[in-house]
From TrEMBL:
GO cellular component: peroxisome
Annotated GO MF terms: alanine-glyoxylate transaminase activity; L-serine-pyruvate transaminase activity
Cofactor: pyridoxal 5'-phosphate
Designated name of the protein: Aminotransferase class V domain-containing protein
Signal peptide: none
Record Pfam families: Aminotran_5 (PF00266)
Record keywords, A-Z: Pyridoxal phosphate
Domain Aminotransferase class V: 15-217
A GO BP entry: glycine biosynthetic process, by transamination of glyoxylate
Length: 291
């Protein structure tokens, strides 16, 4: 996923304008670093963790005419927070700027209507809702973004999107392809299509809602003020250490949850609702947490 997002940033962001980058967690912070690594004129919007970039702020910034791109994270995995990507897309579409969205923990889990929402570049990865090992990055690129890419001499070789577009026209890749992962992707997509993506969106929302309700019923608190349905961040109970809590879940009950990252390390645990997860998994985890 990181390679895909870096390719979009390196190849599609205009060099003669500023780029607005939202930073509300570990992955927003990553896109700030990537943009700066390519020498882009970055306007970093630092958000309180657990909050999201709002369309109104994007509209205010873009009204100046000084911005060529907006980079945001649809589902910030580190905080379990989702933004109003549809609203942001609508605002950006009314300008000459493009919007690049990190949808790595959103694609295949949260509602995502790329064309209808006018999202210019969507980045995703194989290791989340696509239920595969890491190793594949996916990009959806609009005509508006391609117009930028064709004009930019990107300082990239392996991540040069023009090379990929040329090869895709011949049903090929410009460099050696991870064939085993692509074959696995075909199986995963067949599974997704058999269920139906709207059904998967609804199931993900149901599992997330159930986990949040269960946590609150057990006296715990959901961290985010705008929770994502793909991953739930829950504050650890007072007096309970991360090592003790997650270690007991793993060793005694066979349940794996993620810990906090950066400033949330040792303060929250995170539960995935993406991909090959069903109600039995969720109910079982709730029971293990209660015991």
């Amino acid at each position: 996923g990181t390679a895909g997002m870096e390719a979009g940033i390196a190849c599609a962001v205009p060099r003669d304008k500023k780029v607005l980058v939202s930073n509300g967690g570990k992955f927003g912070e990553r896109w700030v670093k990537v943009a700066k690594a390519y020498g882009l004129d970055v306007d970093e919007v630092k958000l309180e963790w657990g909050t999201a970039l709002e369309p109104e702020l994007v509209a205010e910034k873009l009204a100046t005419g000084r911005y060529g791109a907006v980079i945001t994270v649809y589902s910030e995995t580190s905080t379990g927070t989702a933004c109003d990507l549809e609203g942001i897309g609508k605002v950006v579409a009314e300008t000459d700027a493009i919007v690049i969205a990190d949808c790595i923990t959103a694609a295949g889990a949260l509602p995502l209507r790329t064309g209808q929402w006018q999202i210019d570049i969507v980045g995703a990865g194989s290791q989340k809702a696509f239920m595969l090992p890491p190793g594949l990055a996916f990009l959806a690129v609009s005509d508006k973004a391609w117009a930028n890419i064709e004009k930019i001499d990107a300082p990239a070789f392996y991540l040069d999107l023009k090379a990929y577009r040329k090869s895709v026209a011949d049903n090929d890749t410009p460099y050696t392809a991870p064939v085993s992962l692509i074959r696995g992707l075909e199986v995963a997509l067949d599974m997704i299509h058999e269920i139906g993506i709207e059904t998967i969106w609804a199931r993900t929302a149901m599992l997330a809602g159930a986990m949040r309700a269960a946590a609150e019923a057990l006296g715990m608190k959901v961290f985010s003020r705008r929770p994502s349905d793909s991953v739930t961040g829950i504050l650890l109970p007072e007096g309970v250490t991360d090592k003790q809590f997650r270690g007991t879940l793993r060793d005694k009950y066979g349940c794996w949850v993620a810990g906090g990252q950066n400033e949330l390390k040792g303060k929250v645990f995170r539960v995935s609702h993406m991909g090959y997860v069903d109600p039995v998994d969720t109910i079982g985890l709730v029971a293990a947490v209660e015991y």
